[in-house]
């Protein structure tokens, strides 16, 4: 046994590790990291949301099956590599998709199927609350879902005793604590940056608007307690330990850090928590996060205002759709290849075909596509309809086809970013990318840098994603010194000396993307017709 292997084995036995778990839209991942914050082992579980009764959802059974499976795969990896079981750890962190709606009754029963961020069914509530608060309340936010349920006179509303997000739910079941990290909380309801808590004035406005006396609902009483990075957020109970580790080996009493949303853990995983830093997470959905120097001049429906896990103000541009449609095209190409009697692995298929995008015409040769698997709030679509369009004059070849699918994956995002960069003159020193969009070397970076007309960097560690990000927040809770900020901790203890691979925007690509965006904007009427007439 090597010295390094023996060292890792001992820190696992002694609990000098951190466990991070993130529930993403297509993957649940569990990681174990060491005292130096590097990865020791991981486990993945693939899953997909379901569209049931016009609602994008995951069942409670699927949630726990995925969490338990990913955890077991991590522990089996540890056993195979180091010959020991995971019985304890320094801390555990839970992260998950932000927003959505999980409402529970007094008996802790889920009152209605989990409504995820992907649902664009709260337009009326979103518009009304934005006007009421003079603050952007996107359709994805938990409060928009609650208010829409009230407007729809849904019966379950009168029974609500607690409302939280997916990360908050998992944390609650493991610890018994109804708490939420401020970053995830900022996607439920507006935050007061001075108090690092839900905005009390807006809570009063909401209660008055719904006539809370008649409804017997006080918003303050059903929201989780807000916590910031570095605070201790409870301990793993005996019941929680059995729920997470079905083999019964994990011990109770392990402290947990505040649960966070995937946006916050993405910021941590890319070291983008300080002012004038930003990151773009691109996978099933795509969102850009930029830590602001000051508040925006006015409210924009296209821009979310959320926070870092410490409570710094962040402008967030979120698009519901990114890679799902071109993933479907890749599946079709794979079928064609197999029908011809060949077998090409998924990595080679993606690298080869996506690589062709860099050889296409700068403006995609006149092609147009919309990857709207679901609705898209930035362009005002409640539902989606994937669409590919060309004219007789378009240059229809494989390179242009792959390029247009990558361009359109960022079309809605570009619409929102234009507001920040052009109307609000927001400044950002660096943008870091992570997610499946960037897996093929340089391709995703080049396309993204063309879209935002700024350098885009990729760190080697960013591939570990939000599970690693929430593990780092756990490490910060355990190891921070005095009033050490999260940014300082990341710079000095995690990312010291790491610069990442950077790609600068190509002027021809930037011009081509801008030309494509003219076509994209003009063609929204075609997408609207498809949604209206092809339901």
Indicate the topology.
Blueprint: H1 3-13, E1 18-23, E2 27-33, E3 39-46, E4 50-52, E5 55-57, H2 60-82, E6 91-96, E7 102-104, H3 123-133, H4 142-151, E8 162-164, H5 166-175, E9 179-181, H6 182-185, E10 191-192, E11 197-198, H7 200-209, H8 212-215, H9 219-222, E12 225-227, H10 238-244, E13 260-261, H11 262-269, E14 277-282, E15 286-291, E16 304-307, E17 313-319, H12 324-339, H13 346-356, E18 368-370, E19 387-389, H14 398-408, H15 411-423, E20 430-434, H16 443-452, E21 456-458, H17 465-479, H18 486-494, E22 501-503, H19 507-522, H20 524-533
Parallel strand pairs: 1-6, 6-13, 9-12, 14-20, 20-21
Antiparallel strand pairs: 1-2, 2-3, 4-5, 7-8, 10-11, 14-15, 15-17, 16-17, 18-19, 21-22
Helix pairs in contact: 3-4, 11-17, 13-14, 16-19
Structure characterization notes:
The protein is of the alpha/beta class. The chain has 3 domains: 1-98 and 165-184 and 229-269, 2-Layer Sandwich (Nucleotidyltransferase, domain 5); 103-163 and 189-222, no CATH class; 272-458 and 505-535, ATPase, nucleotide binding domain (Nucleotidyltransferase, domain 5). It has 20 helices and 22 strands. A 7-stranded mixed β-sheet has the order 16-17-15-14-20-21-22, with helices on both faces. It has a 5-stranded mixed β-sheet with strand order 3-2-1-6-13. Helix 3 packs across helix 4. The radius of gyration is 23 Å and the shape is globular. It starts with a helix and ends with a helix. Keywords: Kinase, Transferase. It comes from Ruminiclostridium sufflavum DSM 19573. Residues 18-245 form the Carbohydrate kinase FGGY N-terminal domain.
